[in-house]
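#onboarding

Welcome to the new folks! Below is a worked example of what a typical request in this channel looks like: someone posts a single protein sequence, and someone else replies with the predicted structure as tokens. Don't worry about understanding the tokens yet, we'll cover that in week two.

Example request:
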Amino acid sequence: MSTTFTEDWFGDGEDPARLDPVRTTRAAMKPQRLKRFYTAVSMAPAAPGFQLLLDGRPARTKLRRPLALETEAAAGLLVAEWAAQGEEIDPSTMPVTRIAHAAIDHVAEAREAVIADILAYAGTDLVCYRAGEPEKLVALQARHWDPVLAHAQGCYGARFLLSEGISHVTQHPEAIAALRPGIERHERPAALAAFHVLTTISGSALVALAVADGMMAAEAGFDSGEVDADYEMDLWGHDEEAARRRALRLADFRAAAALLSALAA
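Example response:
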């Protein structure tokens, strides 16, 4: 596999605590694409689990590490993405591959930095900032976000303070610290990277935790992060470009949730 390809398309070299799926998606929308350079896609057992094979040859990351995931189910997601490519490779349709590259080359060596970044989101979490009006938006936020806060408090004893409008509210350090065990239990680098993707797309560590814990389905978690944007779209009308970007974010969110599940299999 071309190292230039992996560097240009899968985010190698980025700060692992600043893995931004929006920036990654923009990069994946570059007009030039690499022609498919392989025919057969498969996997084979290899430390730490199952490695992706292209025409029988082991695929590697930019840092020449095996492109492998710990479980057969997770590696199967990689195989499916590469097998689904047409005459040209479209990285925007390969979110699991992008997460795996980041996990193997960066997250594995910067675990604490990634956890700290997730916890920083909790400090200014989306679900804690509520509208005072209009009534419809207030109700939408409550419907989507109140169960997320209840999950954090019920499962982790983390009680978060709410703010109306954009006024900053300082969360108790104890509440943020209480979330750490729920994040740290994702010991595999790819699982932690996937958790980070859920957090950055939704703008909420609490939503990511609810999805990772199985309290919310992926689609419901994604919708929770899109409440304000969806309300604006309903108010002002449909926008094709905004809808396209939303679809890309949803695909990444679903893939991250699926990867978490596959790594736990």
